[in-house]
Design brief:
The protein is of the alpha/beta class and 262 residues long. It contains ten helices and eight strands. The strands form two sheets. Strands 4-3-2-5-6-7 form a six-stranded parallel β-sheet, sandwiched between helices. Strands 1-8 form a two-stranded parallel sheet. Strand 3 (147-151), helix 6 and strand 4 (177-179) form a beta-alpha-beta unit. The longest helix has 23 residues, at 23-45. The radius of gyration is 20 Å and the shape is globular. Keywords: Amino-acid biosynthesis, Cytoplasm, Hydrolase, Magnesium, Metal-binding, Methionine biosynthesis, Nucleus. Its EC number is 3.1.3.77.
Amino acid sequence: MQTVVPPAVSAILLDIEGTTTPISFVKDVLFPYIKENVKSYLHTHWDEKECQEDVDLLRKQAKNDEELEGAVLIPEWCSGENADKEQALEMVTNNILWQMSQDRKTTALKQLQGHMWREAFLRGEVKGEVYKDVAPAIKEWRKEGKKVYIYSSGSVEAQKLLFGYSIEGDLLELFDGHFDTKIGSKIKAESYREIAKNIGCSTDNILFLTDVTKEARAAEEAGARVILVVRPGNTELTEEEEMSYSIITSFGELLLSDLKAN
């Protein structure tokens, strides 16, 4: 099956997990790396400015989470030069592991994860996994004058690492820009309006490719066009969802005009 992209589309916005990259890479490689190495990473980098900024952001997030059931808090004394390092390390580590167990998408968590993954990618311990159909398709879209952007819960830095150090080589030149949760939640319509403003187009000019129906609904509410991506290992769609959206299983199934379809 092939899906025709309306001529009005000038920008293609891509999710990562389950869209450009297997969910298994995120769940079986990236997240376990954080869980296994977070305490040693914090111990090694604790006295560095970047790490202290990460800890301070995590502490502020923990304060906002005080009312959540089971929340793991980080006292104020855990950040700064006078912190008891070992006790602080334990509390910050426990907070990170709790957030991950709840599948939180907070900017504080994603920032720390991004810094850890940067070290892993630069050392060659991890390489970004990208579906084989992704790079060839994006190259074709760009030849046709389309702009291509990434919008992911992972930090912009983490996105650039994944594509810059991928098994397919450095793919960063394929993208015109990157967005993360700093612009807003992926399940809020306003986020897609903000992205359109940032790009300099109408939401009607944006095609969003994602595997998550909550994100698809938010983008649609904002006026963007949406196609769901079905990949191996993705959450199975309901019959209603299958009826409600255009679906592709490969980027190669997108056609950029009716002329190409004939």
